[in-house]
Design a protein that fits this description.
Elements: E1 11-14, E2 18-21, H1 24-41, H2 45-50, E3 52-59, E4 67-68, H3 74-80, E5 85-99, E6 102-114, E7 123-134, E8 137-147
Parallel strand pairs: 3-8
Antiparallel strand pairs: 1-2, 3-4, 5-6, 6-7, 7-8
Amino acid sequence: MLLVMTGLFVTVPVSSQGTTKLSATEQTVWDLEHSYWRYVQANDLTAYLRLWNKDFLGWPSVSDAPVRKDHITDWITSQTAKGLSFQSVETKPADIQVTGDIMVTYYWETYKWVDKDGNGTAHTIRVTHTWRKDGKDWQIIGGMSMSQPATP
């Protein structure tokens, strides 16, 4: 199941501040974060790549070293080549910060890579993306993810 946010303002849990109402700009970027996972689930790499700035540099949890835009789909194609499909389980916002034309998002993503029978194990990662507004569009210029440790 993919979490979909609707409306101009939503209440988002914020790590140290309880909850807050999102501005229109913040909502726009959260909507883009949800689009990100919809594109992965649909295996729409063309739409997925449009989210990334040409000068992107980031460090995905599945990579031993930082990657640039030309390798940002490797984590997807390495799994789809095995016949697996991505399934988003939950996107849970943590916090967001806007500074001029830069926005940083933090959240947890729970997902599965499932086989043709729908079998797969859920994993949760912590995600941070740095977005920059270029004209009217927001694009990811940096990011990092890591596995969420299992709770005891």
